């Protein structure tokens, strides 16, 4: 099987960053359906994926001499409380999480994606 070129790898990593940022925004607004973990844990996991992809891009660009793509400089969403819940409408899920000893919070962190790039 043929291995991807560095340019193809870079394009894939950029698309993964875009996808994970969209996922983070969706979960922050609507919540998710994970039966065992609050939305905050899932948001922080998604955030960590973004950070990991940025690290992979940095390594690839430094190794190959490719220029850093714009996606590398997009803002990373903020870390949130692990017990954050976007909404409490999923009654069964909320009760299950509370039954596991989670003290759930609805303290929302806004992620203002104003189009400004940031240096990492």
Please, could you describe this protein's structure?
With 120 residues, the protein is mainly alpha-helical. The chain has one domain. Helix content is 50%, strand content 0%. The termini are far apart.
In total, the number of domains comes to 1
Give the helix tally.
Answer: 3
The chain-level structural class is: mainly alpha
Unreliable spans: none
Rg result: 17 Å
Distance between the termini: 35 Å
Mean pLDDT: 91
Q: Secondary-structure map with pairings?
A:
Blueprint: H1 6-30, H2 39-64, H3 91-99
Summary of the model, kept short:
Helices cover 50% and strands 0% of the residues.
Using brief descriptors, characterize the structure shown.
50% helix, 3 helices, elongated, mainly alpha, single chain, 120 residues
């Amino acid at each position: 099987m043929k291995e991807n070129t560095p340019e193809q790898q870079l394009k894939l990593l950029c698309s993964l960053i875009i996808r994970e940022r969209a996922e983070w925004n969706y979960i922050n607004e609507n919540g998710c359906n994970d039966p065992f973990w609050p939305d905050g844990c899932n948001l922080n996991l998604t955030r960590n994926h973004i950070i990991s992809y940025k690290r992979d891009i940095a390594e690839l660009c430094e190794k190959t001499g490719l220029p850093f793509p714009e996606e590398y400089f997009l803002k990373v969403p903020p870390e949130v409380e692990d017990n954050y819940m976007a909404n409490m409408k999923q009654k069964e899920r909320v009760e299950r999480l509370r039954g596991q000893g989670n003290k759930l919070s609805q303290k929302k962190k806004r992620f203002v994606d104003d189009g400004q790039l940031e240096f990492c």
